[in-house]
Write a structure and sequence with these properties.
Shape: globular
Helix content: 55-70%
Distance between the termini: 40 Å
Low-confidence stretches: 1-9, 283-287
Number of helices: 12
Largest sheet: none
Strand content: under 5%
Radius of gyration: 25 Å
Number of strands: 0
Structural class: mainly alpha
């Protein structure tokens, strides 16, 4: 008896379809990159080119004078520029690290621990996603005032440490981790704390990196206009907004400030984008 092996013909999509998809993705990519390109171009334009009509999508005489004036203006404030930079770095790192730790710990309980009230808490988290921070702004301010945290670092860190989106995101990712891994750890005598940080968390690295990107981007833009009044406690975005609102003569400086603010989140995303794609593609483990 002869065994006949037939080779399967590899499926290949039509060339026209592939070209259409490529063109569509290229158009969408250009559409999303256009605001970034425009911000960069505006930041290197001299002030006289801002008033040209029709507006130019390029700089006729590019210059970095706007960035020089930005750092000069920031250096002439009441406190040194390095102090504002330290405030932003401190607030950003505190909020990012705390948000990842709290969201991961709470997500483990909500997804892997069978305790009374877990379903109710999960529903509360989903409902909280419907409300933006502006809805709870007055309540947060009242709580901060009652706790005497206005004009302190706590006012611009504590309200942002726990967010419904980060908790929901981590819970959804952990929900895909096989329960057999946790049961095996419990059989070996591991408690919930050890199971969470030695078994579950190592498998959540892609979700961690993705959450770090989202948390860093949001925390880097914290201004604290209504909470911080002492100049030495103001974060960098607040000072740059003050410079930007100085008048028409500083339109170029305002554009340079926008580029300066959006650069760190973009750098973080470029170095971590592979983990973001892995999170979106796999959404956890499967048995």
């Amino acid at each position: 008896m002869k065994l006949v092996i037939k080779k399967r013909k590899k499926y290949s999509g039509s060339v026209g379809g592939d070209i259409a998809i490529f063109v569509m993705l290229a158009i969408l990519g250009c559409f999303m990159l256009f605001p970034i390109y425009l911000s960069v171009i505006q930041s290197i334009k001299p002030i006289e080119e801002f008033f040209l009509f029709p507006p130019r999508l390029y700089a006729i005489n590019p210059t970095f004078q706007n960035f020089v004036e930005l750092f000069e203006a920031a250096g002439n404030m009441w406190v040194p520029f390095t102090r504002y930079l330290f405030n932003s770095i401190f607030v950003t790192l505190t909020v990012t690290v705390s948000q990842v730790l709290f969201a991961s710990s709470a997500a483990y309980v909500l997804s892997k621990v069978n305790t009374p009230g877990v379903k109710f808490l999960n529903k509360m988290v989903e409902i909280a996603l419907l409300f933006q921070s502006t809805v709870t702004y007055i309540m947060v301010y009242m709580v901060m005032a009652q706790l005497n945290m206005i004009d302190t670092y706590f006012a611009i860190t504590l309200p942002f440490i726990a967010t419904p989106l980060s908790l929901f995101f981590m819970r959804q990712f952990m929900g895909q981790i096989p329960d057999s891994m946790i049961e095996a750890a419990q059989i070996d005598g591991a408690g919930h704390f050890r199971t969470c940080w030695q078994i579950v968390m190592p498998n959540c690295k892609p979700a961690w990196i993705t959450l770090i990107i989202f948390a860093f981007t949001a925390a880097w833009q914290i201004t604290g206009w209504s909470y911080i009044f002492t100049e030495a406690l103001k974060p960098l975005p607040t000072v740059l907004d003050q410079i930007r609102m100085s008048g028409i003569a500083r339109m170029g400086v305002g554009a340079a400030a926008s580029v300066f603010i959006m650069t760190p989140p973009m750098v973080i995303f470029v170095f971590c984008q592979s983990n973001v794609l892995e999170t979106m593609a796999h959404s956890g483990l499967k048995e």
